[in-house]
Design a protein that fits this description.
With 114 residues, this protein is an all-alpha fold. It is built from four helices and no strands.
Length: 114
């Protein structure tokens, strides 16, 4: 019987999501409110209060890991789709970080007096 930790695909997926999250945290198109999700998770990890105290050998660390993974997933889901797909493609092409260029979000209009 194999442990779920022995599956390299799970670890690869977690590392890929963390790399994507780091790039998205640097992107100016991601709202500050969304960027607060990983910050709140980090504060929970360093706070002395836990759902399961760390004095329990395995369960205390597993709840911290669960909160970190949950916060990562929530952050990625709340990020704008255009920013996420841009950075996923950049990671797949092994490009260094660069901010997203302008998109088609500009509405051209003409001012008319009535």
């Amino acid at each position: 019987m194999r442990s779920w930790l022995s599956r390299p695909a799970l670890l690869r997926t977690l590392v890929a999501q963390a790399r994507l999250a780091i790039r998205l945290l640097r992107d100016r198109r991601v709202p500050w409110l969304v960027k607060g999700v990983p910050l709140l998770a980090a504060l929970y990890l360093v706070a002395p209060l836990d759902f399961v105290p760390d004095m329990f050998p395995v369960l205390g660390q597993l709840d911290d890991l669960g909160v970190a993974v949950l916060a990562l997933e929530v952050f990625l889901r709340l990020c704008p789709t255009s920013a996420r797909t841009y950075h996923e493609a950049a990671i797949a092409q092994r490009r260094a970080y660069s901010p997203m260029g302008p998109t088609d979000e500009i509405i051209e209009a003409e001012w008319r007096r009535s």
